[in-house]
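Usage

Read records sequentially. Each one opens with the input sequence:
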Amino acid sequence: MDDRTQNIGIMVAFAACILEFPVAYVPMVEKGGDPFLAGVPLDVYECILEVDASAGLQTGLPDRHIMLKFSCPQPVRLGLHHLDPEAIASDLTQRFEKRIGEAGFPGRMVVRHLTETSDRVAL
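and closes with the structure output:
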């Protein structure tokens, strides 16, 4: 990985911290290795805003919107209970539920977790 790629990775992880993502990582790669997490299972999380049906008709809002999406390589979370999918979902719900209510959003937030494995994942 060249210096420019490494610096971009650091900036992505920094942004993740500023945005309060539960996990931030920069893939470290040996010379000649693959920095793109090829074949590594990822826990993927989506925070989805779902509008109440009656409010959606009145406001013209879409039924649902992905507010936030991020991933964590499964090997990173092994042995770290605060990164278990249930813990992440609970943390995200607690973090955003009050904000969404205070903002007057006419609906709720749902946390969706899935596992994906790709040939290449870019930061």
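Summary fields computed downstream for this record:
- DSSP finds four helices and three strands in the chain.
- The chain has a mean pLDDT of 84.
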